[in-house]
Amino acid sequence: MRAWQVPALGEPAEVLALTEVPEPVATAGRVVVRALATPANFPDVLMCRGHYQVRPPLPFTPGIEVCGEVVAVGDGVDGVAVGERVLGTTALPHGGFAELAAMDGGSTFPAPDSLEDAQAASLHIAYQTGWFGLHRRAGLRAGETLLVHAAAGGVGSAAVQLGRAAGARVVAVVGGPHKAQVARRLGADVVVDRHTEDVVEVVRSVTGGRGADVVFDPVGGEAYRSATRCVAFEGRIVVVGFAGGEIQSAALNHALVKNYAVLGLHWGLYAAREPEAVRDVHAELVRLADAGALAPLVSERLGLEDVAAGVQRLADGHTVGRVVYVADPAARRPSADPERPDPDPRRPLR
């Protein structure tokens, strides 16, 4: 079969190679799927560079989540049948940027019929991360103000939609007018272009000086520092990642005198330690998707040959929403205008 492989570490466009490899085997506890759609995630970029906490032996196929059709089921896997359409995390080194991928049986979930392949593939990691960050870690409540950094990105766009579904007022921070339009279409109540506006001043203004009750930060660096200046009394800053490239230091004396909390989120620990909680959240995400409250923002659908270039665009910060490899050319429907993803994610909630 054909698959993208990482034989050496470096920038995705430089090291990814499309080649013929043996098909994965459904060993005990594993499922093999025909990859229908695989989103690019920032951990895929970091693994290509050798900077991620998970370092598969070389060579490996990236693509850490997938929507696929089950073609083989290994011993000890219950509730998964051949021919079923599923989604979930892949079992590296057999990632989703290939014709066939391997999945752990315990991390394989039914794909919702309400979402087409590219959107279904994008419902898992970003939305699980958003849900656990906003609800499990930060305890977001209806009526609170949620500040989301990188709101037009994959994880940020999920947090915007989940914040709306929870009844929060969402302030979205983006970089540039193009991404600002995307955030508005996602349903953000207030959009801040950090290139032309002061995030702290806008947040203070729209909250009457109170600040944001919850901050969702997948960027780090200056984004985190600005959050500490506009977080509310007893507010919560959820540290999700460091896509900006700088791992900041937290001034705990500042957290003490302003009475806010800094909360770390590593969703993978929930998948490892509390798989039933992850399964329950999946059911809730499917319910919200079926109700029209969630619609993953897919801005680019790629053929297999285009994967390396797409992952590099993500690495360079030149994407909005999700960039997804899709196996079926008829399902790609490339959007010439990523500001108008399909379907409309701002339709009324039910």
From TrEMBL:
SMART domains: PKS_ER. Transmembrane segments: none annotated. GO terms for molecular function: oxidoreductase activity; zinc ion binding. InterPro entries: ADH-like_C (IPR013149), ADH-like_N (IPR013154), ER (IPR020843), GroES-like_sf (IPR011032), NAD(P)-bd_dom_sf (IPR036291), Quin_OxRdtase/zeta-crystal_CS (IPR002364), Zn-ADH-like_protein (IPR051397). Pfam families: ADH_N, ADH_zinc_N. Residues 11-325 form the Enoyl reductase (ER) domain. Residues 330-350 have a biased composition (Basic and acidic residues). Residues 329-350 are annotated as: Disordered. This is NADPH:quinone oxidoreductase family protein.
